[in-house]
From TrEMBL:
Gene3D superfamilies to which the protein is assigned, alphabetical: Ribonuclease Inhibitor
Membrane disposition: Single-pass type I membrane protein
Protein name from the UniProt record: Leucine-rich repeat-containing N-terminal plant-type domain-containing protein
Leucine-rich repeat-containing N-terminal plant-type domain sequence ranges: 21-77
Amino acid sequence: MSSVLLHLPIAASQSLHKCHEEEKSALLEIKRSLKEGPEYCYYKFFSPGDYKKLESWKPEEGQEGGNCCTWRGVQCDRHSGHVMRLNLGNACLYGSINSSSSLLRLVHLENLELTANKISFSPIPPEISNLSRLTVLDLSKNVLTGEIPSSLGNLTRLSYLDLSFNYLTGQIPSFLGNFYKLSQLYLDNNQFTGPIPSSFWNLTQLSRLYLSQNQLTGQIPSFFGTLTQLSELRLNDNRLTGQIPSLLGNLSQLSLLNLSHNQLTGQIPSSLGNLTRISTINLWHNQLTGEIPDSLITLRQLKSLYLCSNKLTGPIPSQLGSLIHLENLDLSWNGLHGPVPTSISHLSNLMYLDLCVNNLNGDLHLGMFSGLKRLKTLVLSFNDFSLLLEPNASESYPLLWALGLASCKLHEFPEFLRHQHDPLFLDLSYNNISGQIPVWFSSFVYMRSLNLSHNYLTGFPQHLVFLNWTQLGSLDLRSNQLQKPLPAVPLATIQFYFVSNNRLSGTISSMICNMSNVQVLDLAKNNFSGVIPQCLSNLSSPLMVFSLHNNNLHGGIPQLHKGTCSLRMIDFSNNRLGGPLPRSLENCVELEFLNVGNNMIQDIFPSWLGSLANLKVLILRSNRLHGPIMEPKSNLDFPNLQIVDLSCNTLVGFLPSNYFLYWKAMRFLNTSRPSYFGESWNVPLFSFVYYPGYYDYSMTIINKGMVMEYAKILEYLTFIDLSSNNFTGEIPNSIGSLKGLHLLNLSHNV
Ligand SMILES: *[C@@H]1O[C@H](CO)[C@@H](O)[C@H](O)[C@H]1NC(C)=O
Ligand SMILES: *[C@@H]1O[C@H](CO)[C@@H](O)[C@H](O)[C@H]1NC(C)=O
Ligand SMILES: *[C@@H]1O[C@H](CO)[C@@H](O)[C@H](O)[C@H]1NC(C)=O
Ligand SMILES: *[C@@H]1O[C@H](CO)[C@@H](O)[C@H](O)[C@H]1NC(C)=O
Ligand SMILES: *[C@@H]1O[C@H](CO)[C@@H](O)[C@H](O)[C@H]1NC(C)=O
Ligand SMILES: *[C@@H]1O[C@H](CO)[C@@H](O)[C@H](O)[C@H]1NC(C)=O
Ligand SMILES: *[C@@H]1O[C@H](CO)[C@@H](O)[C@H](O)[C@H]1NC(C)=O
Ligand SMILES: *[C@@H]1O[C@H](CO)[C@@H](O)[C@H](O)[C@H]1NC(C)=O
Ligand SMILES: *[C@@H]1O[C@H](CO)[C@@H](O)[C@H](O)[C@H]1NC(C)=O
Ligand SMILES: *[C@@H]1O[C@H](CO)[C@@H](O)[C@H](O)[C@H]1NC(C)=O
Ligand SMILES: *[C@@H]1O[C@H](CO)[C@@H](O)[C@H](O)[C@H]1NC(C)=O
Ligand SMILES: *[C@@H]1O[C@H](CO)[C@@H](O)[C@H](O)[C@H]1NC(C)=O
């Protein structure tokens, strides 16, 4: 009863003004031009979307059906009966809206919301200016491409404009500065280039400005400091340069400032200490210098302060503990020095604290964190302080999810760990911990990532210690003194398994073939003997990196089956492997790096690897390769090869001059973005939090008699070594075309 009564006034006003025929037919045309269905929902995982919105849009069926003002998503003006608001957000719609769309005939619209569909506007039709009464326009999360048309400049009544999460290009049009009523402007997550328009100084009503995730350049205009209504300013993930304008300190309403992932320089202005309402400051990944201003300690509303990955120096302000609402504090990857202020122990709301990779020094009583009951993440790795562990406090420590104490000069496992049950992530790498991994480690059953690399650990009280960690995804035990056997892990969950540089011996257990999700398998630099398990040819995991170098393995290399080879990196060098190279390597189309040097491979030059379009590094040094290298069959062979080492074999005949012509990657030297060969990945920690991992490819080459170890390989390094073979004849001219070549060694041939 009550609901009928509630609806009466609206129904009455709408029956007074039935919808206008021309608008009704325009709406029906819109319905016809768009497809609707669950397959077109924007959000697939969270909320499935409302894909029956247009069902009520029917031409005549009685009075209700005929009155478009009662249709879902449609609202008419009470007096004129004109369609004034159209809200088809998250309605799983697909189709195109262009110059011929009847939408552009709904000229009385004030409110148009089409967010989160798959509607393409390619480009936004210039006739959008027909909708000159719009005050709210939300086309976010669709398929908008091209530039914003200049005719949009006619929509001067807009107070809310959201074009975020699209594919818009070009510059941000300066006419937006004429929309003086604009209070919310969202242009984030597009591909806009160029500067922030200076006309924006007009936008005095602006309270939210999101320009993040574009490719904007130039400086942050200091007039932003005069837009005193601003409460959220997101400019993160652009290419902005210059300093943070100190005028921003005037924004007394500002609650969120995100300038992260830009190229900002200079100091953090102390005026930010005047942002009395600010709750989040994010300046991470810039090039900010100088000290953390003391003025920040007055920001009593501050909940999150992210200053990581800058070049900040000086101490952490000693009064930091007065930021009593602080929940997240990340000062990692800077050059901060001095002690960790004891006032941090007052931050009773703190959940996340990351101070890693700084030069912090002095004594650090770990007990100072014991009162922080909400603390879940504590990362202190790679500093210079002396960690003091108070055994008396160990039971009162907060139960952490993530703990990083890498390079903290530890000589033993901290006692308080014994009372931790929840850790998902534990990094104790680069310490001086010796002896066995304690039995109580087996209670860490939720562990997802354990890093004990670079210690002096010898093994496990029982080798099953990790077996009931049924969520373990990443185990790093590199560079210890582990002795056999190979640490057993839950075979179904392990993704990243590192035990290289230990003293493991015996044969490699065929259990590795049952690691059904393993992506990185690093058993290098041990004393394994015997053969490589043949079951690898049946491997069904998405293995990317497989490293067995510097062991004592013999026998043949197993065939890898078509469809199962996802390897990008194979390093079997420095063993005693014999037989031919398995022809099935041809199936590994992702392969970038193949090093089988220093073995006893009996084969001819593997020209068939030429079909691997991603292969960049091929090292077959010191094997038993024989016969001539034939000229390539196709000019597409080895298109990306840049490091080739065939030295110390018994190859004969003329140098293959055409290969030198086809190795295109060596002809140009792109040094613009120096990075290294390797793999990177994310270890999932909790719901949406990932921990990044990476693996650098490494190699050893011999240049002018010098053994050169490359722990990392610059992505633009190019190198050819054909020395110490029995090649004859002239050095081909074509080698001169390899302009990008760094090193060439043809010595010791005939
Ligand atoms: C314009 O949109 C209509 C209906 O949505 C579509 O049928 C037509 O192909 C589109 N025209 C262009 C040029 O994209
Ligand atoms: C713009 O609106 C007028 C009605 O005011 C209409 O006649 C015209 O067709 C519309 N233009 C487009 C491109 O739909
Ligand atoms: C929109 O603005 C342009 C100039 O930018 C003008 O030529 C055009 O007449 C305007 N259109 C409407 C519908 O107001
Ligand atoms: C900004 O704040 C400074 C003081 O920091 C003040 O002198 C100036 O008048 C303010 N400017 C505006 C536009 O409010
Ligand atoms: C700030 O930007 C970073 C990306 O650089 C993003 O991860 C973070 O969620 C943003 N935070 C807020 C509150 O906008
Ligand atoms: C903060 O604002 C006051 C005036 O409101 C001004 O005197 C002071 O200089 C400002 N502080 C900073 C650090 O800019
Ligand atoms: C632990 O003992 C140290 C001195 O050895 C003392 O300073 C500290 O307050 C004690 N902590 C607790 C929680 O009892
Ligand atoms: C760690 O152990 C190594 C080798 O035993 C030693 O050289 C180094 O000084 C030790 N470091 C610390 C901080 O104890
Ligand atoms: C895990 O295994 C160890 C020994 O293998 C055992 O002591 C411990 O109770 C087990 N934990 C759980 C939760 O099953
Ligand atoms: C591979 O699997 C097949 C069938 O599952 C089996 O017959 C064969 O022996 C396996 N090969 C190796 C080398 O384990
Ligand atoms: C283990 O920690 C070291 C030092 O923090 C890091 O370099 C390495 O990548 C980590 N291993 C994994 C698998 O994340
Ligand atoms: C390579 O040359 C050396 C001497 O120049 C000779 O002794 C050797 O037999 C040759 N090997 C082959 C495979 O031709």
